[in-house]
Design a protein that fits this description.
Structural class: alpha+beta
Number of helices: 3
Order of helices and strands: HEEEEEEEEHEHEEE
Shape: elongated
Number of strands: 12
Largest sheet: 5 strands, mixed
Length: about 230
């Protein structure tokens, strides 16, 4: 009987402890504030700051904020509920991540939240050199020769970008007849084909634009077709 009584007492104590535990956890859960980091709604343009802020449900407490970011640096707002981030300078679309840690919330409550934002690709830095419309083939060769000479004396990592404005009657790929003609002349001159890129852009009129892409610049491709001369067979 003594053993049975002892076991029953132990069961009652365990039951009381479990009830207390569940009650405490439930109460604590109800007291925890919802935390949400909010970033830009869409794509942030290259060169612009990315802004984040944190929303915290009513707590009536004095809170401290600490931010950590990836893909950029905090320009303003560290230690507050809002920050401004300066993204890294990269050519491709990039992701900026902001993570906040909040001190001053009840023990056991979540105190971190994270959000990401997308930053547009860097706009290209180009130096326009020449542009022409309908010229004879010999005239086109002469303009291209001047362009290749300019590239030869430039920094070895500069790229020559030949932009072709292509009409709907022309091919919009590497088999474009004007592209093949210009590429053959570049090869005939013995110029490094790896330094020549073509950009096909749809237009109402035929046009050729010759451009230098300086070191640190990046190729444009807004509804265009980029073709490297070195990939042509």
């Amino acid at each position: 009987m003594v053993y049975i009584y002892a076991i029953m007492t132990l069961v009652r104590l365990l039951s009381t402890s479990l009830v207390t535990l569940f009650f405490t956890v439930g109460l604590l859960h109800g007291q925890c504030a919802a935390i949400k980091v909010v970033g830009p709604a869409g794509l942030t343009e290259f060169g612009e700051a990315v802004n984040f802020y944190v929303e915290v449900g009513g707590t009536g407490r004095k809170l401290e904020y600490s931010w950590v970011v990836k893909g950029g640096g905090i320009a303003d707002g560290q230690g507050t509920s809002r920050i401004s981030v300066q993204p890294e300078r990269k050519p491709e679309v990039q992701i900026v991540e902001a993570r906040v840690t909040i001190e001053g919330l009840p023990n056991g409550c979540a105190k971190t939240a994270t959000e990401t934002a997308r930053v547009a690709m860097r706009s290209y830095d180009i130096v326009p050199d020449d542009a022409f419309g309908n010229l004879s083939r010999e005239e086109q060769k002469g303009r291209l020769d001047v362009f290749l000479v300019e590239l030869s004396i430039a920094a070895p990592n500069q790229i020559g970008l030949i932009v072709l404005s292509v009409t709907e009657k022309e091919r919009f790929d590497s088999q474009n007849r004007r592209l093949r003609f210009l590429a053959r002349h570049v090869r005939y001159r013995g110029f490094d084909m790896k330094r020549i890129w073509f950009s096909l852009e749809k237009a109402k009129f035929q046009r050729v634009t010759l451009r230098h892409i300086p070191a640190g610049g990046y190729m444009p491709c807004d509804h265009c077709q980029i073709i490297k001369a070195s990939d042509l067979k």
